[in-house]
Design a protein that fits this description.
237 residues; 9 strands; two-stranded parallel sheet
């Protein structure tokens, strides 16, 4: 076990967003695809198939058997390859953090293995993705918006997005949604998942508040951009 140290966990979610701090998401790719912390790269402890097998084992035989199977599946060359990927990322991003679903066993195992290999204790995200997601959802609540929201309207194709992007205190909703609005529709690349769109929007709002802008400029959109929903109320001018 990694000895208890002051920086074993990192809890300042606001600073993670402001600093755009890099993170290692050690969940399986199927979990990462649904939604992730901004600036996170997916370097999983277990792939989708391994995670599924461990999950079935947990339901049928309990926790100890599932942990044993997980260590068996991720051992030898598989373990060394994944350890190398984590350490390579760490070497390029020395201030990175590690997280899993709830800040539990998976991130703890990765933290231990890295510590055992190179003697560095990489902090884990306290509460994992679930805690960070709850924090971002809270930032979307109307009572947490300090700037006056101003929407810019105009005909389709009139250059509203181009105009807004000239102002530092604007947020490009269509850009976050990877969609060109009702007039032009989707882009070649798919839209983010609803979770990732909300995470991106919350991140943009946090950075906007950090700058202490009086006004927030956005384009006049319906409550939906493609298949994505925009939370909150807005004031049109």
């Amino acid at each position: 076990m990694v000895e208890e140290k002051q920086h074993e966990f990192y809890r300042d979610f606001h600073q993670i967003v402001v600093d755009q701090r890099p993170l290692i998401d050690v969940r399986a790719p199927v979990e990462y695809k649904k939604g992730a912390v901004p600036n996170a790269v997916n370097l999983p402890l277990m792939n989708n198939q391994e995670r599924h097998r461990v999950g079935v084992c947990y339901k049928e035989q309990g926790s100890d058997a599932a942990v044993w199977l997980g260590h068996k599946l991720v051992s030898g060359g598989v373990k060394q390859a994944r350890l190398k990927a984590w350490i390579d990322f760490l070497n390029n991003n020395p201030d990175c953090l590690i997280y899993c679903s709830r800040g539990g066993l998976r991130s703890e195992i990765v933290q231990q293995w890295i510590f055992q290999d190179i003697g560095r204790l990489i902090p884990r995200l306290a509460g994992g993705f679930k805690a960070f997601r709850n924090y971002l959802i809270e930032q979307l609540q109307p009572q947490n918006q300090t700037a006056e929201v101003v929407t810019v309207g105009g005909y389709t194709g009139s250059g509203k997005t181009v105009l807004l992007n000239q102002f530092d205190n604007s947020i490009d909703l269509e850009g976050l949604a990877n969609h060109r609005g009702s007039g032009f529709g989707h882009r070649i690349n798919s839209q983010p998942t609803p979770i990732n769109f909300e995470n991106k929007l919350a991140t943009a709002l946090i950075k906007h508040r950090q700058m202490d802008y009086k006004y927030l400029l956005i384009e006049d959109e319906s409550q939906h951009i493609g298949r994505l929903y925009i939370p909150g109320d807005r004031k049109s001018v």
